[in-house]
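Inputs:
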Amino acid sequence: MTALPPEDVSRGPIVTNDSPLLTVDGVSATFVEQRHRLPVLRDIAFGLQRNEFVSLIGPSGSGKTTLLDIIAGLWTPDSGQILLDGIPTTAAERLGTSAYMHQRDLLLPWRNALDNAVLGLEVQGVAKSRARAIARERFPAFGLQGFEDRYPAQLSGGMRQRVAFLRTMLSGQELLLLDEPFGALDAMTRATSQNWLQELLAELPRSALLVTHDVEEAIFLSDRILVLSARPGPVQYIETIDTPRPRSRGFLASPEFLAMRSRLLGELGLIDEPVPS
Amino acid sequence: MIEDELLPAESWLTRIGRWLLPAGLIALMLLAWEIWVRVRDTPRWYLPAPSAIWRALIDHWGSIRSDAWVTLQEVLVGFGAAVLVAVPVAIAIERFTIVERALYPIVVATQAIPLVALAPLLLIWFGHGIMPKVVMVALISFFPIVVSLVDGLRSADRETLDLLRTMGASGWQRFKLVQVPSALPSFFSGAKIGMAIAVIGAVIGESAGSRAGLGHAISLASASLKTDLVFACVLVLAVMAIGLFALIALIERLAMPWRAWVVE
């Protein structure tokens, strides 16, 4: 899998074969910290189809971020493998094949919004003037028009996060790895950002793996939700959401939403007994 | 999408206020000094009045100016040499563990050597010209620049470096795009300290033996009890040191325009 050329940014990915875009096949990982071996992932397996949105939820310390790091190519798992388009890959081969977004926006303080947005393109070797032209066109859609020349320190938290999103989308990668991208935002900005992301993905389809602690956010945005257990072990529970995307905010009040919510909270051990449906 | 404008610059009134306070304090101290000397009729060779120092400065301006020029050259060439050597050394220390293990202890150990004691040695090796002073300046300002630059290169944010790796960035790209800009604030802190002590290094070098420079002028004047001239030379040295410090601070601001908005 290679990066799409930047001019294809609005056209979305081109399907090449029938294998899932991403396959996580029996992945286990252990942290070694001061001679203690701490298992964080055990036998995790799932697939991510093209243009599918999958969320990972689970208690803190269930290894969700570690899993994203492994998929991004930062680590090699102790056992198991990661397949892209059905082909097994090494960690080094996966570097530069996904667009990773963190809870922290990780904008470079010395670059203005425009130059932060083009970072991925620049790393890929796109000429700076061309990269800037591509990014500039996208600024209005991201609610950032007129803020191209601002440094991150001059932007609000929500705007910084949108610049980071723009950087993520402009990289042209088919696979988005989103590690609690709304985690640092206040509730209002968070809701607006979720709506906005959903509309954005309707316009520019991508495959996304979202790590979140927020059950409602997961249901609102996802096609499927995987629940990881507190102790390292295989995926504990899978919830499939059939309501087509993009969804309205009213979906959050529908009976099926509430039923899913209580099932998932029950799986996470946050309510004692699932509410009967 | 209207956001609050962040105002980076303080108003001109507070700016002037910041200068006014220390300036007023200095003026007051000079006045007290002047009165003290006049009332007590202190001998001139013991403690000259500020007005007498000012007169000495005017009377000897020709020689002071040419001495100051020599010292300034020594400082600039020595400091420049220190930066030119410090930058690649710091990069090598940061990048290669083997260089760090081999070189860093030596760099730190040189700080334990009283550089003043080296001054006569430098005279033996490099003669009485500008060279031993340049070497002294370079030696004395090298350490803070290297140490602060190594710290700065290491201060780059881990997660940001990892983000660039996931983008497929090479080691060189990560260095250029993240580490170098991250290191600038720390580098300039080190450069400012290095510049401040560079002037001291030049004077030490000149005092050990020379035919020109402000250090030389001070030695001569104090030997003949021309205390007012000693003070005049010290005053010029102080102005030079402050000016050079301000020059680095100015380059710092131009090199890092984003810092104006970063709240520390």
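The two ends of chain A are 43 Å apart (CA to CA). Flag for discussion at group meeting.
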